[in-house]
Task: inverse folding
């Protein structure tokens, strides 16, 4: 695995600062039932990093004393963490919106047979990875049989009411490009997804989110191996839009790793670029208040151009849409 951080640290990305905290994004660990080429976490079935119950307790305590309105659970496959359901239940008891970053095929694992029903009963919003609506493209990026499994899981979610009008159960899909290119316009691609998935498989969803592949971890290492890293960075830099700076996720989001340490975003977390708050050292979820973050400087490096290139990209999809 090639380290990409040394290639990103020297940057002229614009300085930005935090606004009001709205979203707590929690990485529950790198254990996953898949090993996707585009994965910026480098997750997989052999990863052993899994958040402990004690750290999950610290997150619940933070939610109780903060203005957070959304808990965004990610991984790996967040559903594999033993504390996943407890975190969901605790957040929903406080009327906090919960997002499950779901890879879809996890719902087909035998021990996850009732996970879809649990998510529906708790009105959890599902943001599901489906990097293309063409089977061969998805399997090339995520492994043979992944597309068929994803279709099966999506149909199961539709039967539970997800993505259906009037159900209140939101199901968004996530598109990632197949290589070092920018995503196409989100609205047009969403229509293509909607028409193809409904016509071919009878699948419904609420919204498509287009995400730019970040030049870090597994994807970044692949670019280095192929000699394409510099060209991809030039693409991101040359298509930067200042207008996207106001909508980047790090302004209103706090990222928590599986050990409870804090970062400005999930990408900084994967690069081991912790949140910086004066002389506090490496901030931890158990020893910080939301008020401490107000107007704090956000750590930036060249990978940040991935969030401001073209239409822009964040965990919510295109910014200029």
Result:
């Amino acid at each position: 695995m090639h380290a990409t951080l040394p290639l990103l640290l020297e940057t002229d990305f614009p300085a930005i600062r935090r606004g009001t905290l709205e979203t707590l994004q929690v990485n529950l660990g790198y254990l996953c039932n898949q090993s996707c080429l585009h994965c910026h976490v480098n997750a997989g079935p052999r990863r052993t990093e899994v958040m402990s119950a004690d750290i999950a307790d610290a997150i619940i305590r933070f939610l109780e004393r903060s203005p957070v309105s959304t808990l965004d659970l990610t991984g790996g496959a967040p559903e594999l963490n033993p504390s996943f359901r407890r975190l969901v239940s605790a957040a929903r008891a406080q009327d906090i919106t919960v997002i499950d970053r779901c890879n879809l095929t996890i719902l087909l694992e035998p021990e996850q047979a009732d996970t879809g029903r649990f998510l529906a009963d708790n009105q959890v919003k599902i943001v599901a990875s489906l990097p293309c609506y063409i089977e061969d493209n998805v399997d090339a990026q995520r492994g043979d049989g992944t597309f068929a499994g994803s279709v099966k899981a999506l149909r199961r979610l539709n039967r539970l009411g997800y993505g259906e009008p009037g159900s209140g159960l939101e199901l968004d899909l996530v598109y990632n490009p197949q290589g070092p290119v920018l995503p196409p316009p989100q609205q047009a691609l969403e229509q293509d997804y909607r028409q193809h998935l409904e016509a071919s498989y009878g699948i419904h969803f609420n919204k498509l989110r287009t995400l730019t592949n970040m030049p870090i971890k597994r994807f970044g290492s692949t670019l280095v191996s192929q000699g394409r890293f510099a060209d991809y960075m030039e693409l991101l830099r040359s298509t930067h839009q200042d207008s996207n700076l106001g909508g980047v996720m790090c302004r209103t989001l706090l990222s928590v790793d599986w050990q409870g340490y804090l970062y400005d975003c999930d990408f900084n977390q994967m690069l081991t670029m912790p949140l910086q708050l004066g002389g506090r050292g490496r901030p931890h979820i158990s020893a910080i208040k939301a008020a401490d973050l107000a107007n704090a400087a956000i750590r930036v490096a060249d990978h940040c151009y991935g969030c401001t290139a073209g239409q822009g990209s964040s965990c919510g999809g295109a910014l200029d849409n």
Remarks:
- The mean pLDDT is 92.
- The longest helix spans residues 186-201.
- Residues 19-213+242-299 form a domain with the TIM Barrel fold (CATH 3.20.20.70).
- The chain has eleven helices and eight strands.
